[in-house]
Amino acid sequence: xxxxxxxxxxxxxxxxxxxxxxxxxxxxxxxxxxxxxxxxxxxxxxxxxxxxxxxxxxxxxxxxxxxxxxxxxxxxxxxxxxxxxxxxxxxxxxxxxxxxxxxxxxxxxxxxxxxxxxxxxxxxxxxxxxxxxxxxxxxxxxxxxxxxxxxxxxxxxxxxxxxxxxxxxxxxxxxxxxxx
Length: 180
Fold this sequence. Notes:
Elements: H1 2-9, E1 12-15, E2 18-21, H2 42-46, E3 50-55, E4 58-64, H3 78-94, E5 103-112, E6 120-131, E7 134-142, E8 148-158, H4 167-173
């Protein structure tokens, strides 16, 4: 794993589990082109996140607990768990939206229930439309023994400006101007 850290510090990224040189400045801005609408970005790839399922507002992901994910107490770092939960919620939401839709996580609440000391962490996410541009997500993380280790509730907001969509597509996801 020290080789991975060295490459990342030198401004390299992971794409398809292969190291590709970063063509811009190591500190950005960066251009990221995903192979598919629902696929892992470089940061998620670096964490080893795998998509098991993402459809109909539901998503299931898994992430290994490697040495690079450990905190100083040898437990899975809370930031890695939070990333897994947020990513699962994002993929559940993407499964309901038109590809190319811009949106963002605007709020999250997290309860850490048990420490993870080894194995893989499994994420199960579900999203529901609230109103207008707002969506809510619930995500549960489980260890290999199926013990719930973290719970996250999040809010997402679809952007008003949708440069990747036609006017008709943008109107359909924005609720025909229901919320400004």
